[in-house]
Design brief:
This protein has 425 residues and is mainly beta. It is built from three helices and 25 strands. It is elongated and about 85 Å long.
Length: 425
């Protein structure tokens, strides 16, 4: 037993020597010289007389608890690297002097290849610019509007594994154009991040694939074409957006023209919105006017409050918490839910097929109604006083007209449905 303990110690010394030599090979060597010479240990002769070695283990009571934790070495290396990068990238760090920073990946794996990244920062200033356009892939864009009359551009190059990132920057008239020369989408490829400060009322045109866009405030117009990207805007004026497989969040804006597919679009407050496309999910909190193009299909639309809504949907459920004014919509295979209709509403026109229609009216609401159904039922809540002027049920067709409420009618409800029900509550 004692002999095997000694043998284990000698094997660990040899293993540590080989691992240290392999680690030295991957360290950058442009700033200091590293001693690489191996220690000359002749282990074979030490093992010749191992049977004659005697160790009194009673003098080492803790020898049975002797343990070497190899994983702790990797943990220490990771923590040391993280702390070093934070210091280097601090305001007084080395990256502010346009020097190179190297990052290493210490994670385990069958292929222990380290990823080396160097950071280069370039700053440019432009005058007399009224429009900026980006053609970017695999990186980020941050846009900040300022009171300055100049465009200030910071380019962050992330060079990985000797792959150098590059871009083309040109000015034609008052147009500033920035195009990224991408090296690919693998982890070893180079990437670029842009931070740009623009004067007020500067127009933006952004084409982004596989990246993120962040805009604080934009008084000029924005045209954005996104694929597999994310965009976040706090406040904007006019936006024309085409998105594919992307997420968009907008705080406050005036007008938006939204189109695309397989995207998630959330807008907190807007004056006017136009939508079109397939397989999109919309979340609008407060919209004055919403127009849904007839090409809109396969998705969901949830609205907090809307003034006026016009549109046509297919295989799309629409859910409105509060309708403030008028609605004119047709739906096929998509349910229409109006949870509350304001007393200020004047005209409610809904045409449906294979979809349930629910209309929630405010207390004291008074209107005329005209309902036509084929293979469906009309239900009006008993809390309303209902007076029928016409009621025809013939075969699978039902036509009912009359008045809801006791006051003078201030609104008109015209609704029809095929193969589904209408519920007024």
């Amino acid at each position: 037993m004692k002999k095997y303990i000694l043998l284990m110690v000698l094997c660990f010394v040899a293993f540590s020597q080989s691992q240290a030599n392999e680690g030295i090979k991957s360290i950058p060597q442009d700033s200091f010289k590293i001693f690489k010479k191996k220690l000359d240990l002749d282990v074979s002769k030490m093992l010749e007389n191992i049977d004659d070695i005697y160790i009194d283990t009673s003098r080492f009571p803790d020898v049975a608890d002797f343990n070497i934790n190899i994983d702790s070495i990797n943990v220490l290396a990771q923590n040391a690297t993280k702390e070093a990068l934070e210091v280097l990238q601090s305001p007084g760090g080395i990256t502010k002097r346009n020097a190179k920073v190297y990052r290493y990946n210490f994670s385990k794996g069958t292929d222990q290849k380290s990823i080396r990244t160097s950071v280069r920062i370039e700053n440019k200033t432009f005058s007399n610019i009224s429009e900026v356009e980006f053609f970017h892939k695999y990186g980020n864009i941050v846009v900040r509007e300022s009171n300055s009359k100049q465009v200030e551009l910071e380019i962050q190059y992330l060079d990985r594994n000797n792959a150098t990132a590059s871009c083309n920057v040109s000015v034609v008239g008052k147009l500033l154009s920035i195009t990224t020369n991408s090296g690919g989408k693998s982890n070893a490829s180079s990437k670029i991040n842009y931070i740009i400060g623009i004067p007020k009322n500067t127009a933006m045109n952004i084409n982004m694939d596989y990246g993120n866009i962040k805009i604080d405030q934009l008084s000029g117009g924005l045209i954005a074409n996104l694929s597999y990207s994310e965009m976040s805007i706090q406040k904007a004026n006019n936006i024309s957006l085409k998105s594919r497989y992307s997420d968009v969040k907008i705080g406050e804006m005036q007008n938006a023209d939204l189109s695309g597919s397989y995207s998630d679009i959330r807008i907190n407050r807007a004056n006017k919105i136009m939508t079109s496309g397939n397989y999109n999910d919309y979340r609008f909190n407060d919209v004055q006017t919403l127009t849904i193009d007839k090409s809109t299909s396969y998705g969901d639309c949830k609205i907090g409050s809307v003034g006026r809504l016009d549109g046509s949907i297919m295989y799309t459920d629409i859910d409105i918490n509060n309708l403030l004014s008028d609605i004119s919509i047709s739906s096929q295979y998509g349910d229409v839910m109006l949870r509350n209709v304001s007393p200020k509403a004047k005209n409610i026109s809904i045409k449906g097929s294979y979809c349930d229609i629910t209309i929630g009216l405010s207390p004291g609401f008074s209107s005329t109604f005209d309902a036509t159904l084929n293979y469906g039922d009309l239900t009006i809540s008993r809390k309303f006083s209902v007076k029928y002027t016409e009621s025809i049920e013939k075969g699978n067709r039902t036509v009912k007209k009359g008045q809801i409420g006791t006051g003078n009618p201030t609104a008109n409800i015209v609704v029809s449905n095929n193969y589904a029900d209408i519920d007024i509550r």
